[in-house]
TrEMBL record:
One of its GO terms (biological process) is 2,4,6-trinitrotoluene catabolic process. GO terms for molecular function: oxidoreductase activity, acting on other nitrogenous compounds as donors, with NAD or NADP as acceptor. Residues 13-148 form the Nitroreductase domain. This is Nitroreductase. It comes from Fibrobacter succinogenes (Bacteroides succinogenes). Keywords: NAD.
Length: 171
């Protein structure tokens, strides 16, 4: 893919709403503060058996005090959108996927990070995100951690994993 095509892809949004608000965070102290706030919020949550597995994992690790929701990556791109807009999460997810494809093309590792979305009504976290520029009408719907892959070659793992799900019906 050429550079131009990526530029176009970043702009994909329902009805050209283009309401995604990107926070490209490379300041280590900001990532550390987010990590601290995320850990405190999860540590205070009730750990119930019926919770989504990944959320249970976030709570368990946070209680132990060693939870890095973004894997200590040097860059975290947080994507917010209007709270009252019906396609907020879809527009944000499209942008994140496009950024992950672009990162891979640049030989960088990336990971979709849901934790800030799960905590997007947490008042302490919201207040901090506001200090970074999040508007009152916006919420965070996803983020993506970007860095060099922790592999022998330093390249992202491009091995195909066996497919176990995703039902497809051809009609
Ligand atoms: C929508 C979405 C949300 C994800 N959220 C997280 C997350 O919060 N933390 C994390 O470490 N990985 C997250 N991931 C990464 C997945 O766990 C990872 O890509 C996994 O390998 C996907 O497995 P699959 O390709 O078999 O579906 C997320 C991936 C997607 C697509």
């Amino acid at each position: 893919m050429g550079k131009h095509e990526y530029t176009r892809s970043y702009q994909d949004s329902s009805q050209h709403a283009q309401g995604n608000h990107f926070f490209v965070i490379s300041d280590a102290s900001v990532i550390a503060k987010l990590k601290e706030l995320v850990q405190s919020a999860f540590a205070a949550m009730e750990l119930r058996e019926d919770l989504y597995k990944s959320l249970k994992n976030s709570i368990t690790l946070s209680r132990k005090g060693n939870y890095s929701f973004c894997y200590n990556a040097p860059v975290l791109i947080v994507v917010a959108c209007q709270k009252e807009y019906g396609n907020n999460m879809a527009d944000v997810a499209c942008a994140v996927e496009n950024m992950m494809l672009a990162a891979n093309e640049l030989d960088l590792g990336s990971c979709y990070i849901n934790q800030l979305k799960w905590l997007n009504e947490d008042p302490t976290l919201q207040e901090y995100l506001r200090s970074l520029g999040l508007k009152e009408s916006e919420r965070v719907y996803a983020s993506v951690a970007i860095g060099y892959a922790d592999t022998e070659s330093g390249l992202p793992n491009r091995a195909e994993t066996p497919r176990t799900g995703n039902e497809v019906v051809f009609v």
